[in-house]
Write a structure and sequence with these properties.
Layout lengths: L1 H12 L12 E6 L1 H4 L9 H9 L2 E6 L5 H15 L3 E5 L2 H5 L4 H17 L3 E5 L6 H5 L7 H10 L3 E2 L2 H6 L5 E3 L2 E2 L1 H18 L4
Helix pairs in contact: 1-10, 3-10, 4-6, 6-8
């Protein structure tokens, strides 16, 4: 049911299927430790697994500890270096952990999305769940509403529940905040299926 909700949201934000991105295309995964693969090897992290599934050349642009502001500063060089056709944006978790103002996070994400668009690339937003003791106890983490609101405003696809579903399962976590190797496998599968629904993967 949770996976259906994730896929439904992607479809709702993107009613017409997008053109498929062919194997060999340059794709950038921009994020923090959830993308970098804290606690697992680079080969075990979801960007590398997604590359194997799609045939894309996926650059892991994750930096542990990065806030949305730090990633915004890094992005121009990454776009220039790799010339991606698609950027998967997974940011906001460290902003929340540091209790940074939500409006600053949203403003940074808007600038990130504008940079991606101005570079001629497409973007997909992946929501990071709020760290919650109650959510962890009941194994039901969820992402804050600003991800959905931003995706609707920007008219871009959102994969809302994939990370939350993985991090809600204690057996898929290496520590309270990060997936283990099995968690990255499931996360890559969820992202792959969502990208199929969007149309970027056939």
């Amino acid at each position: 049911m949770l996976l259906f909700a994730c896929i439904f949201l992607v479809a709702a934000c993107n009613k017409a299927k997008q053109e498929a991105i062919p194997p060999g295309s340059q794709v950038l995964a921009l994020g923090d430790s959830l993308t970098a693969g804290a606690g697992v090897t680079t080969e075990e992290a979801w960007p590398n697994l997604l590359a194997q599934q799609t045939g894309w050349v996926v650059t892991n642009g994750g930096v542990s500890g990065d806030t949305s502001e730090a990633a915004l500063r890094r992005l121009p060089a990454l776009l220039h270096q790799h010339e991606p056709v698609l950027v998967l944006v997974t940011l906001g978790g460290n902003d929340m952990l540091r209790h940074l103002p939500q409006q600053e996070t949203v403003a940074n994400l808007k600038q990130i999305l504008a940079l991606i668009k101005s570079h001629g690339a497409k973007a997909v937003l992946l929501a990071t769940p709020t760290a919650s003791l109650m959510g962890a106890a009941f194994q039901h983490l969820s992402a804050p509403d600003f991800y959905r609101e931003l995706a609707e405003e920007q008219q871009l696809p959102l994969i809302e529940d994939a990370i939350a579903e993985v991090l809600s399962d204690p057996q898929l976590k290496g520590d309270p905040l990060h997936p283990n190797a099995a968690g990255h496998v499931l996360l890559s599968e969820k992202i792959f299926k969502a990208l199929q629904t969007i149309g970027y993967v056939r």
